[in-house]
# Entry
Amino acid sequence: MEELLTVKGLKYVYPTGNVALDGLNLEIKKGERLFVLGENGAGKTTFFLHLNGILKPTAGELFWRGEKFSYKRDFLLRLRQKVGVVFQDPETQLVAGTVAEEISYGLFNLGYAESKVWEKVEETLKELGIWELRDQPIASLSLGQKKLVALGAILAMEPELLVLDEPTAFLDRYHTRLFLNIVERQWQKGITIVAATHEIDLAYRFADRVAVLHAGKLLASGPPEEILLESRILESANLEEPWLLRGSKILKDSGRLLAHEYPVKEEKKFWEVLNRVKTPRYGVTTGTVAAAAALGAARFLLLGEKMKAITINTPAGITFTLTPEILEKNATEAVCGIRKEAGDDPDVTDQALIIARVRRQNFPGITIKGGRGVGVVTEPGLAVPVGEAAINPVPRQQIKEALEPLILGGETGLEVIIEVPEGEKLASQTLNPILGIKGGISILGTRGIVVPYSREAYIESLQLQLKRALYLDLKRLVFVLGNKSKKVAQRLNVPAEAIVETGNYLGDMLKISENEGIEKILIIGYLGKLIKTYLGILNLHSQVARGQKEALALFLYSLGESQELINKIYSTKNMEQALEILKSAGKDHYLPLLARAVKEKLKSYYSGLTMDVAFTDISGAIIATTFDRLEEGWPWDG
# Structure
């Protein structure tokens, strides 16, 4: 890296006899961000005043691009155009009456033509975001605005080296962020940055290299992640270790931070890593892939845009970018095919090719159909009516939300046909044959994501919710099994921090809660899942156990119900069919009794907890509860 400015044996003694710099040697390299650290009185400001010739050294030499400093007028004029200094207190360098005049001052001194001066003033003020202040008197500005004007006066002269003395001094949070963002943009343009600061965390986050001064001498210089871990250097300069650097080292040593991620320099990233407890990769549902494929095909059909990567949002609030394997069109339709990525979940549809065919239709709206490899519903009680393609409501909504912006206000619409070439073969490995879905797989997903089915890692990630609740000293929580039950909790005005998502690991989460001293839990979940607990099944994943109709049949048997009703329940394909049979027989008043039975079963396992249970149907509506006050607007904590 080319040396821009070189300092050799720099010594400076003030008229009082105080030695401010004592034999300082340092080079400033083109394109770097060098932060000079040291306590008050270390010599930082005095050093900076030498960099553009404001001070002349008592001894030693300075070189600009290999040319030795001369303190004659011509050299200093050239130097001060190339090396701009922004002082700690902007009022010490502002000389003009208005903002625009201040920016123009140095340009006129450099001999710029007047038209060029005002062109440059406008360009600079707009880049700083203070064009509207151009005619404001300097005296009327806030300190943060004055600092921006001082910076602008330097940037207008297009320096190669920008020197900042305590850049964030006197600034509030807003102006600190604004000032640093502007400086970062200048560095990206190729300007070399040298800054002095006593804020060691700031230096760690932004510097490529740090130089530590003490009593006018250079103690050390080098990468911040090396120098700022040296306790000897920090103690000598009366500096503290940056908390982000120390935290990064702890995470790396504990194996939670990968080698290529070290060191972490952003707070957001640090907290992400801290909360990353061996969590496997999330995947996407068939519904999300279908929506992405439909979007890719539609944009190709309508706009001629052949997308190399398709970004799609999910109901869970997580955004994925997927890569098309097929993207082609003819005179009547466009076709996009994307392979499903299940993350670290053992999903039978992992790597299945999901294809969307999109055609124009001569009426408004979006029509969604199933094609080859997508099953057809043949039994009632599912989320999709009999005779329709087994594309569930949430995936249908995802497709519509992705495509509607493309046809707003139009007189014609789009027809979307979803296909899965291997769908019929894959369906034999799913529950579809039992559920009465024939001819292929279902296009599923209520959250749009596939949560990795890894017991240890997933439970640890769920446990973070409990840790947060305990940190907030919350003793009453609402457990939800999935997205629909979460929405029920939100309708009940439950604070977000008190909602704990358990997924299928209800038993594990209840055990952890009992051990952690949680006092009261309301469990909200779909009847088809929660009813399994009546049989003692506490991992509710369908790959672990089903047992819904067996549990309901056993419960009815315990009430002395007729064998005829029990046989009807046992012959159903799903819980919605079973509910219809209960309602038709006038037996749906059993549901609150079933809720109490589930509550007692859970109490037998977790006696240290006070629990209540609320069943929902497949639409998310509450159909039974053990708590009489559970209704819309119910104050969740009593």
Q: What stands out?
A: The chain has four domains: 3-241, 242-276, 283-449, 454-625. Residues 454-625 form one domain. The longest strand covers residues 3-13.
